[in-house]
Specification:
Radius of gyration: 24 Å
Number of domains: 2
Shape: elongated
Order of helices and strands: HEEEEEEEEEEEEEEEE
Oligomer: single chain
CATH class of the largest domain: Mainly Beta
CATH superfamily of the largest domain: Galactose-binding domain-like
Length: 278
């Protein structure tokens, strides 16, 4: 019994010693790691999402809390780029917004030394609701599916994280990523119905190291009998939004649409969104 008591005392002393040695980090102002005194900013606003950019002077793992209430926020977003490490370039999509609504956001992050940084609260207003009669027949929710894809990151299935289905889910936070296909990446979608599309929307993904950016694409409209017509190349000026391109097929019924990368910055190229409108 004495030996047991000695063991318990020793365990208690070790635990107490461990707890005393721990110190909680202070929260430091984010402006200590601004690059060129430039604060985080909302770069573009839309009716249901907004894009955010911040360049820190040191690598940090960054997150953005946001919401209609400037005390509780309620939502959080981080860089969707495929990395678990801290970085200097921070591109974040704030999604699930209500149209024409004021939102508050705060940037916060941690560096490799355990320092925690937090910014002041900033705000922006989402755009009024966009009215459109266009219908996306390439959306999974409308019955479309992936017919072919060059590859998926880490060879996952189409339905897994970074799989090709994420180019068709109409979610600005998710993205299909190829497995390092660069300029050879492609995706083909089997439309929810044969139709005569008027335009195709393409949104490139990107990585914080500057790779995976698609600069231009070709779009091929394919009929049921295999007859096809290719449009392009079309330029994608940025990776912050979808760009729509006219591909009027008049009275020709199209069964599937294929997008091929023409030029990119290489690496795990892919798409945030692919839409085909009628």
């Amino acid at each position: 019994m004495l030996g047991l008591n000695v063991y318990n005392v020793a365990s208690t002393m070790l635990l107490a010693s461990t707890c005393v040695a721990q110190t909680l980090p202070q929260v430091l102002p984010l402006d200590q790691i601004f690059t060129n005194n430039t604060a985080p900013a909302i770069t573009e606003t839309f009716d249901t999402y907004a894009t955010y950019y911040f360049q820190s002077s040191i690598p940090v793992a960054c997150a953005v809390v946001y919401g209609e209430d400037n005390t509780t926020f309620g939502m959080i977003a981080n860089d969707p780029a495929m990395t678990t490490t801290a970085t200097i370039e921070h591109n974040v999509v704030l999604s699930d917004l209500k149209p024409d609504t004021v939102y508050y956001f705060r940037s916060q992050g941690s560096d490799a030394n355990g320092n925690i940084y937090a910014d002041v609260i900033r705000s922006f207003r989402s755009e009024p609701e966009t009215e459109s009669d266009a219908f996306n027949i390439a959306a999974l929710s409308n019955g479309a599916s992936v017919k072919a894809v060059s590859s998926n990151y880490a060879d996952v299935s189409n339905s897994e994280l970074y799989g090709a289905d994420e180019a068709l889910d109409e979610d600005p936070v998710t993205a299909w990523s190829s497995n390092g296909d660069g300029d050879n990446a492609f995706i083909e979608v089997l439309l929810s119905e044969e139709a005569s599309p008027t335009s195709v929307g393409v949104w490139s993904r990107s990585m914080t190291d500057g790779t995976a950016i698609i600069n231009s694409v070709n779009i091929t409209m394919i009929q049921a009998d295999g007859t096809s017509k290719t449009f392009g190349p079309f330029d994608l000026p940025t990776t912050t939004q979808e760009y729509q391109f006219d591909v009027a097929c008049e009275d020709t019924l199209i069964q599937s649409v294929r997008v091929d990368v023409v030029e990119s910055t290489g690496g795990n190229t892919g798409l945030v969104n692919l839409a085909v409108y009628v």
